[in-house]
C-alpha cells in the first residue's frame, strides 16, 4: 500500500515540476521573472475575490402584514385609565363658608383656623379689599392674554417694580400661579448636563422643575450642612471641566414639608467656596422672617445680591395668588423669553397684582406685624411643648408649626390614618382646624408626615391657648394607645 | 396645510440668512470688546452659552417693541396702549405717561367678558368681600369653600360630564394632570402643533411620546397601528395604555380639530382621548359648549376634557371634566390639587356668573346674543379678508384668524403701521411658529361692533397694501347701493 501511495506522490511531484518548468512558466514579462508559483498565487487571489463577492447570509426581513397588525390591535387590552377607587380616596376636605381668616365657619360652626397660610393676617384686610374692588371695576377680572400679547397691564409692571424695591434687588418677574414659579424657573436656567444639588425635603414644584430640566440631580440630607459640604466636595473633585458646566444649589427658606429653616449664611459660604449658584424658594418666609419681613436674607444678615435667584409664591403671607422671581437684571430678562410658565400662559389677573402691591405697602408701614407673628409662634410653642404623643419638629421661629408622631405606626399610610383621625376629632369636637401633610403619588419626598399648623399674626392669645388645650385633649383620646409611658 | 409660494420662501430664507450673518458679525465684535474687559464671573459658567440666546439677542431684540405692549385699561374691544420709547436701540424700553386708544384685535376676549360686566362684576365684588382675594391654602387643606364646590358643579353641567375639578391656572392643569394618569410604559400620541403646556406635561410624565401630523386622522391611525404592533421600545412589551391628545381649536392656525374621525379611530384601537378646549369652550357651538357640540360628538366618548377659563369667561384657571371616578382619583393624587393654592374666590365667582349669562340663567338673552354675534363677526371678518386677497387660515366659525406674513421684515412693519392707525394686532414669529411661517393673528370678540370691524378691515387693507402681504388676487368689490341691481363679478 505504502509503495503505491509513494509512487503516486512521486508521480504528482514530477508532473508538477514539469509544469512549473514549462516554457510558459519561465517567461519574462515586462522584465519580471514569472516563476511557477505565480500561477498558484493568482489562483488564490481569484478564489478570495469570489468568496468576498458572495453576499453574507441574512435572515429575510418579514414585516408584519396588515392582517397580523389587525390581530395584534384586536388582542391588545389597555389598562384602565385610573386604578380602582379605594376608601381613602373618597374623603372630602372640610368646606369653608366664609373667608379663610383666623376664625372661619366650617359646616355652620365657627372654628379657629390654623389651616390657612395667612401669616400676616391680610385675609379680609380692608385696604386689600378696597384696592381689589378698584382694580376689578377698572380692569375686570382676567387679563385675557399672555404677557407678550397685550396681557401686560400697568399694575403688573408696578407690582414687579414694587417687589424689587421692597427686597432690594434690581428687577423681578411675576408669574400667574405660585406652583408654576419654581417649575418654570428651574428648566429655564438648568439644562441637560448641568448639576443641581438639592435638599431631599423640597416640595413637588421644585422636584418637577428639576425633572423637566433633565439635569443631573444630587440630593443631600435634609437641612444638614455637613452632608451638603461633602456632596459639593465630591462633585467638584469629580468634574474638573467646570468651565461650561452650570452648577446650582436649590434650597427652600422655610421648608413646607417640615418647617425647618435653612441656614443661609453657611450655604453662602459653601457656595462661594465651591462656585455654585443658589436658587432660594422663599414662599413661606417673605413677610415673616427678618425684622422688617424681607425674608431669609435679612434674617441671616446676608446681602441679597449674593443669592442668585429668589422665587416665592405670593399665596402665603401676601394673601393673594401668583408668584414672583427676583434677582439680577440678567437673570430676570432671560426668564422673560425662555420661561415657559411666563411666555405660554395668561398673565396674573390685575386685581391680584394690585392686592400684592397693597400688601407690601401695608407691611412696610406696619413692621410690628412680623413681631406679633413671632410672639404668637412663641406662645404656641410653649403651649405645645408638653403635648403627649406628638413632638414639635419644626424650627422655633418658623410660622409652620410641625407636629410629628412620637411613636410611628411603621408605615406612612398608618401614620396618615392616625393623624387624619386626630385632625377630624380636633375639628368636630374642639372646633380647631388643623391639617395633616398630604403626599401625592408623584412626590418623592422622604420626610415623615405630621400635623401642620399655620400661625397668623391675627390670631389672638386666647385662640392659641385654646388650640393648645384642644390638641392636648384630642391626643389623650385618640393616641392613648400610642403614648410613650 | 399652508403652501408657501416659491419666491416668498426664497426671499424669507434670504432675509433670515442676512440677519443671521449680521448677528454673527456683531457677536464677533462683542467677543473682542469683552475680551478687553474682565468679567466678574470668575469660575462660574455663564447663564447662556454662545448660541443659546443668539436668536433673542440679535433677532428678537430688534423688534422687541412689537411684543409685550403694556395696556392701561381693561382688555375690552377698545383699550389704552401705553407708549414706550427706547434710548438704546430697543434693548430696554421705558414707559411713558402717554396712552393711545386702540382697537383691540389681540386679546382673547371671545365673548366680551373682559371688562366690568353688568351682571358679573357686582357678584364678583360681593364674593370678594365675603371670601377675600385668596384662601391662602391648598384645596385639600383649608382652601375649599362653598364657592369652589358650586363652581365645579356648574362647570360639569356646562361641559356635559358627570364631574369636574378646577385649578387656578390653565398651564399647570395640563402639566400636572398628564403625569398622574400616565407614566412609564404608557404612550402619548399628540398632535404636532400642540401647546407647550401639553408638551411639558407629557415630558414630565415619563411616558413615551409620539407625534402625528397635524389634524390628519389617517396618519394617526397609521401611528396607532404601528405602535400597538411594535409595543414598548426595545423590550417590545405591550403598552400599558395609550392616550391621544388633541386640541379643540389650535391657537396658531385657527383650525378646528377633526374630532369625529379621531374619536372613531380611538374607539376602534381602544386608546383614550384627551381633549384640550382652551380656545373653543364658550366660543363655538350653538350654546357655547365647545367643539363637541359644534361637530356633533357625544361628550361620553371623550375620556378627559380639559379647558381654561381665561379666554371666553374673562377669568383665570383651568378645569378637567370626566367621570366621577376619574375626578375623585385626581383629587386624591394630582399635585396641583394637593400643593397649589386654590383658585381665587372672585375669579371663581366670575366663572359661575359668566356661565349663567351664557346659558341664559340670569334671565336675559345676552348669552345667546353674544354667541350669535361672535359667530357672525368671525365669519364676516374672515370672508372680507379673503376677498381682499390676504392669506387667512382657519375654519369657518373659529374666532381665531391668522394672516400670513412670511417675511421677517414684514412682522414689525405690519405691527407698527397698524399701531400708528390705532389698531392693535398680535404678530407671531419663530419659535412659536415654524421659521418661514410668521403670521399676524386676529382674535375676534363678541364685543366688537360692525363699525369696529369695518374700521379694522380698512386699516388692515391699507397696511397690507403698504407692506405687501396680499398674496392672493383680490376679488373686485361689489357696489352695494340700495335699490340698484348688483352684478356679481366672479
UniProtKB/TrEMBL annotation, chain A:
The chain crosses the membrane at residues 27-52. Keywords: Acyltransferase, Lipid metabolism, Membrane, Pyridoxal phosphate, Sphingolipid metabolism, Transferase, Transmembrane, Transmembrane helix. GO terms for biological process: ceramide biosynthetic process; sphingosine biosynthetic process. GO terms for molecular function: pyridoxal phosphate binding; serine C-palmitoyltransferase activity. SUPFAM superfamilies: PLP-dependent transferases. It comes from the Eukaryota. It is a single-pass membrane protein. Its EC number is 2.3.1.50. The keyword Phosphoprotein does not apply. Pathway: Sphingolipid metabolism; Lipid metabolism; sphingolipid metabolism. It is found in: Endoplasmic reticulum membrane. This is serine C-palmitoyltransferase. Pfam families: Aminotran_1_2. One of its GO terms (cellular component) is endoplasmic reticulum membrane. Belongs to the class-II pyridoxal-phosphate-dependent aminotransferase family. It is an enzyme of class 2 (transferase). The keyword Transmembrane applies.
From TrEMBL, chain B:
Pathway: Lipid metabolism; sphingolipid metabolism; Sphingolipid metabolism. Signal peptide: none annotated. InterPro entries: Aminotrans_II_pyridoxalP_BS, Aminotransferase_I/II_large, AON_synthase_class-II, PyrdxlP-dep_Trfase, PyrdxlP-dep_Trfase_major, PyrdxlP-dep_Trfase_small. The chain crosses the membrane at residues 6-25. Its EC number is 2.3.1.50. It is found in: Endoplasmic reticulum membrane. Residues 102-460 form the Aminotransferase class I/classII large domain. Its main location: endoplasmic reticulum. It comes from the Eukaryota. It is an enzyme of class 2 (transferase). It is a single-pass membrane protein. It catalyses: L-serine + hexadecanoyl-CoA + H(+) = 3-oxosphinganine + CO2 + CoA. Keywords: Acyltransferase, Lipid metabolism, Membrane, Pyridoxal phosphate, Sphingolipid metabolism, Transferase, Transmembrane, Transmembrane helix. CDD domains: KBL_like (cd06454). Its cofactor is pyridoxal 5'-phosphate. GO terms for molecular function: pyridoxal phosphate binding; serine C-palmitoyltransferase activity. SUPFAM superfamilies: PLP-dependent transferases. It holds the Pfam family Aminotran_1_2. One of its GO terms (cellular component) is endoplasmic reticulum membrane. GO terms for biological process: ceramide biosynthetic process; sphingosine biosynthetic process. The keyword Ribosomal protein does not apply. Belongs to the class-II pyridoxal-phosphate-dependent aminotransferase family. This is serine C-palmitoyltransferase. The lineage of its organism: Eukaryota, Viridiplantae, Streptophyta, Embryophyta, Tracheophyta.
